[in-house]
Amino acid sequence: MGLLFARSFVLVTALLVLCLLLPCHAKLSTKFYAKTCPNVESIVRAVMAPAVAAEPRMGASIIRLFFHDCFVNGCDASILLDDTPTLTGEKNAGANANSVRGYEVIDAIKTRVEAACKATVSCADIVALAARDAVNLLRGPTWKVPLGRKDSRTASQSAANANLPGPGSSAASLVAAFAAKGLSAREMTALSGAHTVGRVRCLFFRGRIYGEPNINATFAAARQRTCPQTGGDSNLAPFDDQTPDTFDNAYYTNLVAQRGLMHSDQELFNGGSQDGLVRKYSGNAKIFAGDFAKAMVKMGGLLPAAGTPTEVRLNCRMLN
Known about the structure:
With 320 residues, this protein is mostly helical. Helices cover 48% and strands 3% of the residues. The protein is built from 14 helices and 4 strands. Helix 2 runs antiparallel to helix 4 (103-116), helix 3 (56-70) packs across helix 5 and helix 8 (185-191) crosses helix 14 (285-300).
């Protein structure tokens, strides 16, 4: 008995040491709230459906919110934290200020979830579920969302500025940025397909429509009508002007036709390593939908580093 106890003690000690060296997290599960909040998915859907119906662009915004959360220290709802005298959040980072939106929708979901299951469901899980529903409500695929994330008690504006790819990114820098998160070049190309919905400000694509050679002339001229060379920075244009509010594979069809709106979009089809995959997705919506769903699950598995203080926030905008 003494020998067995000693071996158990050594094993537990080894595991604790390992957790100090590597991220150790409880495994996410699609049944995480089966007993504690069994209706959480229907509650999220009940808020998302009218929000997207009223403004389809909101669906794209929630998908973007999820991406911008997960890419900064994991999917921990840190992007939802408001600035305070003692905490500088991520909302005003360069890639988030005046571009990430949908916070009020997450607030509305959280209020209903708290009424049904107090202090149980994390804001990070709500964002993950809302992003899945956003895709599906825009006629895209659906998938089972692994749950069990916790909300970070910290945020990092500097990490947001450093980790989020910008509209002028090259193909190589995109591959590197996603690889740093454990995501492959194929997964990066699939996740970029989220740009099949949503709008972007003139400020972020002006350089492409006036200064790049690999752009369809008719497409460039159409975009120039709402994005002058000076002024109009906040004027919006759809990523996909064919089916702007439908989650389909038209994004890739546009790239093949040199109708990518931002420089970083067209970089995926510009004589590089992703050309073949872009052609595949442009010709087969089913393959794209499957790859996108799997990549969203994988990205949703990015979690905060071991030792990060976490909780289930009662209000997504502030610490408990």
